[in-house]
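ENTRY TYPE: paired fold submission
RECORD: A
CONTENT: sequence, then structure tokens
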Amino acid sequence: MSLDILFAAESLLPARGGAERFALELLEELAGRGHRVRALWLSGGGDAAAAVHALPGGVDGRELPAPPRDPANYWAAIDARRDVLTAAVRAETAPDVAITQLHGAPAALEARAPFVVLLPSYESLCKIAHGPGAEVLADSVRPLCPPPRDCVGCPLAEPGAGPSRRAQDAALAGAHALLACSEAVAAAARAWTGHRNVVADRCVAVAPAADGAHGGHVLLAAGVWAIHKGVALLEPITAGLGGRGVVVTAAGLSASTAARLAVLGADLRDAPIARALDGARACVVPSQWPEPFCRIACEAQACGVPVIAPRTGGLPEHVAAGGLLAPDAGPADYVAAVRSLDDVSAWEYASAAARAAAGAVLSEEPLARTADAVEAAAAA
């Protein structure tokens, strides 16, 4: 049976991060199944040559003009942006099922239909509680704030958090299902919301068209660099890898950081991930928080590029064990791990392990499973 499906979220195009790229793939999959698919998203998502700039075939959508983000008043900006998206959803024809994610979740309550919430990160729960310093593993969740929690009076939350948190909690409680990107995020969602229908499906669809190479460059990668993504480690790691070719993904780097990396000999690339991975000897993901999943790490492994990353969040679920470091690993640890791959036999072993790890994820067909969950929500 053909369904009318509405996707409504804060961001979609340009699609630079793993969450947006997977959302586009999901919408394409649903359209390919014969469903009518509509999309609404807010402007101000930034731009990059590496980003996807167009909706897939069969998907109709429009970008909504949104109030700009205000770094000095985070929650007021979230409220204003949520109001724009909510009004747009309310004005749409009611769909058979809706899909949303992150701060867009409260808007789905206006869809007048069953809806599912994609959880590509912890932001729908509370990014403060699950940020750096939190322990989020597959079998245990210890956020920064122990229960009972008081989001309104939380000293870590910025002024104005209360209404936004209450709206987010109401949306999560009303969702037919919460579709998490990893077992770690699913565990966090269960502990935080008590929701009974939390499904863990990886947010990756296909392997990029690229191949690793023992003599290639070292890729330091993030969808968008930020403090919690390990941007502070880029310069010491690059310096420690002197003599080796180093490529750094460019999104999110400040002009000053980019200039210093260039002086150290790093090649900054704003290009699709397949081009950044092709010919790489290793992919370093120096994340400093419980990484929800890390699509780039899975994509690298699918290309036979060994990944070096911390043993935290969703990373241990799919990164080959030989590439996992302690959660508090420093620049010297990352440099030593890269050097351990200098021996060609060691690299070949790690490359084969990487492909096997990614293959195990892709064999679960996470994209199809997520689309199935959306259809099941409509049937319910």
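RECORD: B
CONTENT: sequence, then structure tokens
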Amino acid sequence: MNNWNDNYVNGYQTAVQAENEMSLQRYVAAVMRKVYGKMTLGLLLTALASFLMFSSGLMSLMFTYTPIIWILFVAELGLVIFLSARIDKMSNTIATVMFYLYSVLNGVTLAPIFLAYTGTSIAMTFAITAGTFGAMTFAGYITQKDLSKFGAIMSMAFIGLFICMLVNLFIHSTMMTWLISCAGVLIFVGLTAWDTQWIKRMCAEADPSMVGKVATMGALRLYLDFINLFLHLLRILGSRN
């Protein structure tokens, strides 16, 4: 009890301020659990959609009718851009449904990895991704250092990575593919920590009526970090069929 009193007399804040701070921390932790819960469900839907496409034979349609693949990619891109830009004007239910719909569409387009890579290497890479993602999101959550500048650098690096990926679609360089994958791993490891801190800050600052939307937007950002980290690691570590 003396230590408690000494801390406030000698240091930091009043008991009321401390209680408010602890209440805020509990509130943020509760919202972050919603973020991780939605993200996890999104990943499960992606995995289920991919597996069903692979096991049902529907994937052959994607290779038989090439425009289907492009339609799905455009639909994915449009959905995630629309959700990011318009989430403030949506109800929480619609935003959540759109996120899960995006997760399913992403699973459909990712189904071919079951043909390209062995099941063992997919499972191993997923485990490595989960461990790496978990470590970095934990670091981003607990760090007291402001990662804003770091996040800006990672965002610019991602733009450069995206341009390199577009260029490589035309030149098909094996070496460039490997370098892109290595850079991608580093970028999305960094973005995972930054996005986690950004989401945590948004949880603390958002109006209570916006909590559901913040959780959905946070889940989308972490979902994208996880998926991209997994794909880049798979290109490095995966064993092809």
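NOTES ON RECORD B: Confidence is low (pLDDT under 50) at residues 1-12. The radius of gyration is 21 Å.
STATUS: closed
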